[in-house]
């Protein structure tokens, strides 16, 4: 390299050095400015966070102090001191679920009363309605009373009469699978008993329940249920009650304590995803006194009977349900059956009705009966909204000892039975129309072909029915 080239390179370096130094200085200054602003922003956020934490701690301390003050003040108040409640918030206002059930029918059947031959009637008179009839209308109200209790009321209206079918409270938070119900309720015995008429699968009840209870067993008292923490459904229950309803009586219930008690056990589970089942065993004991019943005596004159003694009933029930993949909306099938065995012993009185041409002479003597019966029914929903069903019930009048009253009364040696067919259509979950045929053979030599066209309408929300 020549001297001239060396001088030229040195000149170029001297010229480029200041040009490169200037951007580097600007970059360093920008970086320093960014670091300074970032530190300031970080310090500002930390200060705000610290302020918020202090405010939260202060609020928590204030709340704790207020709670301690309230508890201290409450402890100082005398138990009898009047307390003025503060206005309840709008969300806790009394707002129960209310529904109205409308039922009616056209009934084509033989006229007159049709008591069940061989059985003391479960009520004053047998049903006599025919033609266009208005069945009872139900008014139902239910709501949670507070976090610990729930209340339920069911009123039945028939013409000018109002009947309280159910009015009870039920515990919600006892825990350990325990539930307590108090008031008037449908007994938990059997399978059909807890169902109201609008939830029946047929327009009338089965023969077993007509013979045992008239419609269903109602209890005024206390009920306790225990649901076991097991994979299979296992429920145990017990009831103590006043016992004024059949098979008890008003006179038998006129005392301190209980004149009726019941116990039941239910076991159930699933079989695959499409099948489920439940089986049960129940026991009922009652102590009726002068329980009224109307029968025809040997002169075919209506006679009053008064029974006093003990009544014991065993019930066994079984239910099997099928729905494809557990979804009953399109198709489903239900089979249910119950069997009962009832024993009654005590005294039977038949007041004098000779003035009316009757055969009773006001005699009181021993009465003993051992009777049984069963029913089975099958319901098939073959498409949405449409169902068909069949039911058969049969009673055995069994052995009945009347004592001296055998001279004026006679219970026919008959096995009453009834066979039913039905088809119903539900335009929605709130309405149903049903057509039913009964072949009724409850009386000796008097079979009856019955046709029933029924409607059921539900206005307002209504809770789901039991299994």
Task: Characterize this entry briefly.
This is TonB-dependent receptor. With 467 residues, this protein is of the alpha+beta class.
Counting copies of identical and different chains, the oligomeric state is single chain
Q: Enumerate the spans where pLDDT stays under 50 for 5 or more consecutive residues.
A: 68-92
CATH topology (level 3) name of the largest domain: Porin
Q: Number of helical segments?
A: 3
Structure write-up:
- By secondary structure, the chain is an alpha+beta fold.
- It has 2 domains: 25-56; 98-459, Porin (Beta Barrel).
- It is built from 3 helices and 18 strands.
- It has helices at residues 3-76, 207-212, 250-253; strands at residues 97-108, 131-134, 137-146, 149-158, 161-171, 178-186, 218-227, 233-241, 260-271, 275-286, 291-296, 302-322, 332-350, 363-383, 386-401, 417-428, 431-441, 448-459.
- The protein has a 16-stranded antiparallel β-barrel.
- 27% of the residues are buried.
- InterPro entries: Porin_dom_sf.
- This is TonB-dependent receptor.
- Residues 1-21 form the signal peptide.
- Residues 42-69 form a coiled coil.
- Keywords: Coiled coil, Receptor, Signal.
